[in-house]
Each structure stands twice: as structure tokens, then as C-alpha cells.
Design brief:
Layout lengths: L5 E2 L14 E2 L2 H17 L2 H7 L1 H11 L3 H13 L3 H7 L1 E3 L3 E3 L2 H29 L1 H21 L3 H29 L2 H29 L6 H8 L3 H10 L6 H6 L3 H11 L8 H17 L14 H17 L2 H4 L2 H7 L4 H26 L5 H22 L6 H20 L1 H12 L5 H27 L10 H19 L8 H9 L10 E4 L9 E4 L1
Antiparallel strand pairs: 1-2, 3-4, 5-6
């Protein structure tokens, strides 16, 4: 590397404007970067909150975009048991009543996911060209237009197309929010705010469950039109505020816009925190150059080249693990409750209670699990516990004729939801955001989220056939299917999921580059600041 490289790292205090280009050789840049990294690592969560309040504020708002995807996901799945919706878009079956056929249940269930798949792919390119802020604003505007199709849909075919089109901007929200949080926050807050995306997903589901429970007794088409119309609230609220959001400094560094990156850091950090943005910027520049030394590119193809393939694999399966753990079964629980004999009123009350418990579990995870346990440990224990619950639901179905058994199965489903949000639900968002190289972070998240969408579409197609009384009618036996996929994911995670808690992005880069086994990540010490990127120091504790 050229020892006379010039770097824009000029802000000497937290209120200064960038005014000069400071010549710096590679070792001096590494020294500055080391200071920035050490400052970041010494911040505990409370200190980080005091140092980065504005960054937290913007992360919270950006992640709020995901509320709409969570809302839409549970809305469509639970409309299948909604009387007026089934009457409008379903078919009458003698002795059963109005039902959407399994084919249309599958079509509607997978439509938004299919659209989100293409939205996520496009987002990987769009963010690279325009930055996260502009893409988010554009996606909100596009979504506002597509909601008209779902609201006014005269037939199920139009509704399905509208859901698919709405999914396109939702794919952008789901992949931008965790990437943005991982790029503007310090190490100690990284897992909290990337997993906050999951909390927004839950909030959307909780809002949808509450809306559905409140409107289920309406006898007109407004019982399902109002839930669609409420989706316009979020763009109207978010667009005017996000116009003033700062761009990610990592994106600006990758584009060579270092003075803008410095200004962005000044906006994100508190002046009273005594953190020199020059050092933070140096750490970002150093990490970007370290990855350049490892020949890390910025295209989708680079996600599957060299040691990036392993990183992409982990991100993809961790995200897909949310579906493989039984999410399509548990989160469309109102239909399951109906099939095991519970009343319509009871099913929606249980859905609201389950989503409220999921939100509570998220807070418990933040305060009781994440500060004390590693990502790998939480993920493994969560997946294993959910596997047991699913098999128990299947076993109980042997006596499914009893009302008490139906209530017990509903209770296990709610318990599954609680454990899911303690573990896999949170980390399925947080881990992909820190697993890929920083130069490929956005695209790694897009590939991982698309893996989720593909698995989710497959699950969405087959799940209605498991449950529909006019098809396979498995009821609680479906627990055996998803218990099996959860068991396979648990086995994969034991051998392949590394521990990244407390690791900087430089350290994660070096651990993957040196092919450290997943189960040994925690036991290695890394020196990422030797001055010349290829000269690394890595040793087992």
C-alpha cells in the first residue's frame, strides 16, 4: 500500500467543519484507527447512549419502516380466518362455509414475500448508487402508491398483485434498516439497534392483531378495508422526518466522500462525549482498506468468493432459521386455533396476547440475555427449545378431540412465540448485519434476507395445505414438520455459527480470513492494527 496516501480526517474537535487534507502513511492511519476502535470498545451501553443519542434517534426512525412489513405479514395470514374477508374473496364449501382455497391462501401468503425478494435485490444496487437515505425515502413514496391496489381490490387476483407490488419497497426496508443501524452506532449498541428492527416487525404484528381483533365483528367490507388503509399512516409520518436523516458514514467512505462522512459523524456523535470524529473516521477508512487488501469487492458475486462465501452462508441460514424454526406455523396461529376448535373471538384474543408477549420477550432479551450471553449461545438454546415445543404440539394432536388439548397446543404456540423473540427472532436480524464484510454489508444482508424470502415463500405455499380442512388437514401434526426443520437448523448452528459478541468489524474480518472454526471464534485474540493490513496477529487465548 502506498505510504503517502492522503486521507480527509481533519476534524480536530467535535464541532469543527472538515477543512483540510491530512497526509498520512498507512501506519499513522492504523494508529489513528486503533485509537478510534479502542474508544468505541471502552464504551459500555450507557456511555454509548450518552455519546450517540442522535444516532440512536435516527436508527429508531429508520427501523420504523419495518413496522409496515410486520403489519402486512400478519394481516394477510390472519385474514384467512376473518369472516368478511373469506366471504369477499373465498369460495363457499358445503358444511365448511366460506374458505379461501389452499392455492389462494398460498398465493396471497407468498405475494408480498415474492415482491420483497426483488425489492431486496434491487436495494443492494440502489443503496450502492444513491445511499440508504434516498432509497428509503423513495421506497416510502412507492409503497404509498401501491397500497391503493390492496385497499380498492375488487377481486382476489388484484389483491394478490397489489400485495406483491407492496412487497417490493418492503424488501428495501427490511435490508436497509439493520445495515444502517450497524453503520452509525458503536459496538456496544450494535446488537440492540440491529435487533430493534425485529421489534419493529413485532410492533407491526401487534398493531395488526389489535386492529383485526377490534374489527372482526364488523359486518361490512370496512372490516378488512380499514386495516389496509392504516398502512398509509407510516409513510405520511416518516417521509417528512427522514428528509433530515444523516447518510451512513461507511457508505460515504466507500464512495470516497470523506469530508461528507466526517460531517455525518459530527451529526451522529454528541459534542459533550469528547469523541474525536477524526479517529472514528480513521477506523472506518482503515477497515475499508483492510478489506480491500483481502480483495473484498462490492458486487453480489463477491458475496460468494473466497472467505466471503462462509460469511454469506452464515448470514443466510441465520435469517432463514426464522422460518425453519416454525414461524409460518406459529405466526399464522389464528387459523391453527380455529382448526383445533377454538372460537373466532378467542383466536384473535390469543393472537393479540401472543404478540404482546413477543414484544415483552424482546425487552427481556435486551436486558437479561444480550448483555451476559453470546449470540451463538442464545441462538442455539432458542432453536433447541422451539424444536421441543413443536414436537410437543405434534404429540398432543393424538388427543386433538379434547378442547383442553387445543388450549394446551395454543399455549405451546404462544410459548414458542416467546422463546422465538428471546432468541432467533432477534438474532436473525442482528447477526446478518455484522456477519458480512463492511464493503459487502448491504449486499450480504440483501442476499440473506432473500434467502429468508425464498424459504418463506416455500413455507407459505405448503403451510396452507398442512392446515386447510379441505386439503391435508394435519392440524397439530404440523408441529412434527417444523420441529424437524428446527432440529436441522440447530445442528447446523452448532457446527457453523461463530460468536461475534464484542468483536469489531476488523476482528471479524481477520477471524474469517484466517478460517478460524466457528466454535473457536470466542477463544481467539486479534490485533487488527499492525499498520500494514497483510501483517496480522491472531492467537488463541
Amino acid at each position: 500500500m502506498d505510504g503517502k496516501t492522503e486521507v480527509h480526517v481533519s476534524a480536530m474537535d467535535n464541532g469543527a467543519e472538515p477543512t483540510a487534507i491530512v497526509p498520512s502513511d498507512t501506519r499513522l492511519l492504523a494508529a489513528e484507527a486503533k485509537t478510534g476502535a479502542e474508544t468505541e470498545q471502552t464504551l459500555d451501553p450507557l456511555q454509548a447512549i450518552n455519546a450517540y443519542p442522535k444516532a440512536i434517534f435516527w436508527c429508531l426512525l429508520v427501523s420504523m419502516c419495518v413496522v409496515m412489513e410486520g403489519y402486512d405479514t400478519i394481516l394477510i395470514g390472519n385474514f384467512f380466518a376473518y369472516p368478511k374477508f373469506a366471504e369477499k374473496y373465498g369460495t363457499y364449501f358445503p358444511g365448511v362455509g366460506h374458505q379461501l382455497t389452499a392455492a389462494w391462501q398460498a398465493g396471497l401468503g407468498m405475494a408480498a414475500g415474492a415482491g420483497a425478494f426483488f425489492g431486496a435485490i434491487a436495494n443492494g444496487y440502489l443503496v450502492d448508487w444513491f445511499g440508504q437515505k434516498r432509497v428509503l425515502l423513495g421506497s416510502l413514496i412507492v409503497l404509498s402508491c401501491f397500497i391503493f391496489m390492496t385497499f380498492f381490490a375488487p377481486a382476489i387476483e388484484v389483491l394478490c398483485i397489489g400485495e406483491a407490488l407492496c412487497g417490493i419497497p418492503m424488501g428495501a426496508f427490511a435490508t436497509t434498516a439493520p445495515a444502517y443501524a450497524s453503520e452509525v452506532l458503536p459496538l456496544s449498541l450494535r446488537a440492540y439497534l440491529t435487533s430493534y428492527t425485529n421489534m419493529c416487525f413485532i410492533m407491526g404484528q401487534l398493531i395488526a392483531a389489535g386492529v383485526l381483533e377490534g374489527l372482526v365483528h364488523l359486518t361490512s367490507e370496512w372490516s378488512y378495508r380499514i386495516p389496509f388503509a392504516l398502512q398509509w399512516v407510516w409513510p405520511a409520518f416518516l417521509i417528512p422526518i427522514l428528509l433530515f436523516a444523516p447518510e451512513s458514514p461507511w457508505h460515504l467512505v466507500r464512495k470516497g466522500r470523506l469530508e461528507e462522512a466526517e460531517r455525518s459523524l459530527i451529526r451522529l456523535q454528541s459534542k459533550s462525549a469528547n469523541i474525536n470524529p477524526m479517529h472514528t473516521l480513521a477506523a472506518i477508512v482503515h477497515t475499508n482498506r483492510l478489506e480491500t487488501e483481502f480483495a473484498v469487492g462490492t458486487s453480489y458475486w463477491d458475496c460468494v468468493k473466497g472467505f466471503e462465501l462462509r460469511r454469506t452462508e452464515v448470514a443466510c441460514i441465520v435469517f432463514a432459521g426464522q422460518v425453519l424454526s416454525g414461524m409460518n406455523f406459529a405466526y399464522n396461529s389464528t387459523y391453527f386455533y380455529q382448526q383445533v376448535g377454538l372460537s373466532t373471538s378467542m383466536t384473535y384474543k390469543l393472537a393479540v396476547g401472543g404478540n404482546a408477549l413477543a414484544l415483552f420477550a424482546t425487552f427481556l432479551s435486551w436486558f437479561l440475555l444480550m448483555p451476559y450471553f453470546g449470540r451463538r449461545t442464545i441462538y442455539l438454546w432458542g432453536m433447541g427449545t422451539m424444536c421441543v415445543f413443536l414436537f410437543a404440539i405434534g404429540i398432543l394432536n393424538v388427543q386433538s378431540g379434547s378442547n383442553g388439548i387445543g388450549i394446551a397446543q395454543a399455549g405451546l404456540t404462544i410459548a414458542w412465540t416467546f422463546v422465538f423473540q428471546l432468541s432467533v427472532g432477534q438474532l436473525g436480524w442482528a447477526l446478518p448485519a455484522e456477519m458480512g464484510s463492511t464493503r459487502l454489508r448491504q449486499k450480504t444482508i440483501c442476499v440473506a434476507r432473500n434467502t429468508y424470502y425464498i424459504v418463506s415463500v416455500v413455507a407459505g405455499v405448503i403451510q396452507p395445505y398442512f392446515m386447510n380442512p379441505t386439503e391435508w388437514n394435519l392440524k397439530g401434526y404440523t408441529g412434527f414438520v417444523w420441529g424437524g426443520t428446527a432440529l436441522l437448523t440447530f445442528i447446523w448452528a452448532y457446527f457453523r455459527l461463530p460468536e461475534t459478541k464484542g468483536r469489531t468489524y476488523e476482528e471479524i474480518d481477520l477471524l474469517f480470513a484466517n478460517k478460524v472454526p466457528a466454535r473457536k471464534f470466542k477463544a481467539y485474540q486479534v490485533n487488527a492494527f499492525n499498520g500494514v493490513a497483510p501483517q496480522i496477529s491472531i492467537m488463541e487465548k
